[in-house]
Design brief:
about 425 residues, alpha/beta, Rossmann fold, seven-stranded parallel β-sheet, about 15% strand
């Protein structure tokens, strides 16, 4: 037993004592392989998942580093079965590799023949594969590159994609650093993405993810398709690109509900891309409208399912996902890993806050109670329904009004999960 800031539990949760003198060092050590689930005042909860471990492995971390971080900072002995599971899970990444063969095209190469035998016998994967070239290599239909990766991840053998990318249509883009320069973490994020070919950059809100995208575009020097959540975000991207790069307004097109411009750099909204006309996603043709050299997915945790399906056919294009979190409401983090790419860079918000690039945040947890009637409903509800009941507890309305009364005249943003609850709160606050 030591006086470390972590408590590592056998259910793969990791508790971090925030006020401990080693808390910052421990947070930095576990950030590459543990996902933050809850962050109340005194104890933060992280979870070690297979996907988090594979993201860490793809970023260059090995099992020895993960085990060492847990053992070094843990207050109590780390459960041995958990350590064994970590080593086994991380060893699964990369035993299968997608490689471009000069003679045979796209191939799946195994570093463990038994794993390849398992894959060849899988009824959903086998139809995507072609002839077996040798005991360790099988041909993959090029159109199935994305779907093969999806299925391999689902059966626990995430493939390392080393098949490379097409350059796309060349279009010169350079950063115009007059009076500003890339921050160190922005440069590292762009470099890490480019070295990996495709993947996701995770940065906190306000840290300049758009600038990372611009830096990636400058590296690509090619036509770029940028997908954003809405028109407002798209126009913000356009303003930033004009201000920070050599691009002019005429080189940047807007593909939204109002305009349908396709230019060397095109910014499209998810809503338009996924809009159906007579049951068809006609705007998905935008992906094939030019020989794109780079596709950027802004707020990749909000990527709609139809775009996932199209992205499965775009595996030869460089793809950059930008987000402040890899957690998705629909649980499809694995599809982001398979189709966009693994996490290439993740800057802890505490580090960026300490450098003065984002405003410091004070987080306070306020707990509320349920009424007797709500508790009874909760007791007999299904697991999914329980979350909604907790989220919409009546006592929250009074607490929000009490908090607002303590901060009169201050700009306030209230975020909730359910529109009817927010509508009711808005009515009471008017």
């Amino acid at each position: 037993m030591t006086d470390g800031p972590l408590i590592v539990q056998s259910d793969k949760t990791v508790l971090l004592e925030v006020d401990h003198e080693q808390a910052d060092a421990a947070r930095a050590a576990i950030a590459p392989f543990a996902e933050l689930e809850r962050a109340p005042e005194h104890v933060h909860t992280y979870r070690i998942t297979p996907l988090a471990l594979w993201n860490a492995r793809a970023a260059g971390h090995d099992a020895e580093q993960v085990v060492d971080a847990l053992v070094t900072f843990s207050r109590y002995a780390v459960p041995q079965p958990l350590l064994v599971d970590i080593v086994d899970t991380m060893a699964r990444y990369g035993r299968l590799q997608l490689v471009k063969s000069p003679a045979h095209g796209l191939t799946l190469v195994s570093l463990d023949r038994a794993v390849l035998e398992e894959v060849l016998r899988h009824k959903k994967i086998a139809p995507m594969l072609g002839a077996r070239i040798d005991p360790d290599t099988v041909i993959v239909h090029p159109s199935e590159r994305g779907r093969v990766k999806q299925m391999l991840l689902k059966i626990g053998w995430p493939a390392e994609d080393l098949a490379g990318y097409v350059d796309g249509e060349a279009h010169p883009i350079s950063l115009r650093q007059d009076g500003w320069e890339l921050r160190d973490y922005q440069r590292m994020a762009a470099d890490s993405f480019w070295a990996g070919g495709s993947g996701v950059v995770v940065l906190p809100c306000g840290a300049g993810k758009t600038i990372v995208g611009a830096a990636a575009m400058a590296k690509a020097g090619a036509t770029t398709l940028i997908l954003v959540t809405n028109t407002v975000a798209g126009r913000q991207w356009k303003r930033e690109l004009i201000a920070r790069t050599s691009l002019t307004e005429n080189e940047i097109g807007e593909y939204s509900g109002e305009r349908k411009e396709i230019r060397p750099v095109t910014i499209a909204t998810y809503q338009v891309i996924t809009r159906r006309t007579k049951g068809e996603y006609r705007h998905l043709e935008l992906f094939d409208s030019r020989d794109w050299g780079l596709i950027i997915y802004d707020e990749v945790h909000l990527l709609p399912a139809p775009v996932f399906r199209m992205t499965a056919d775009l595996q030869s294009r460089r793809r950059l996902g930008l987000t402040a979190t890899l957690i998705r409401e629909d649980g499809r983090e694995g599809d982001v890993f398979s189709l966009i790419g693994p996490k290439r860079y993740d800057a802890p918000w505490k580090d960026i806050e300490a450098q003065g690039w984002i405003a410091p945040a004070e987080c306070v947890e306020v707990r509320v109670t349920m009424t007797d009637n709500e508790r009874m409903q909760y007791a007999v509800a299904e697991p999914d329904e329980r979350y909604r009941l907790c989220s919409t507890a009546r006592s929250k309305l009074a607490v929000v009004k009490s908090i607002l009364a303590r901060h009169p005249g201050e700009p306030t943003l209230v975020i909730g999960a359910y529109l009817d609850q927010l509508d009711e709160l808005g009515t009471e606050l008017d």
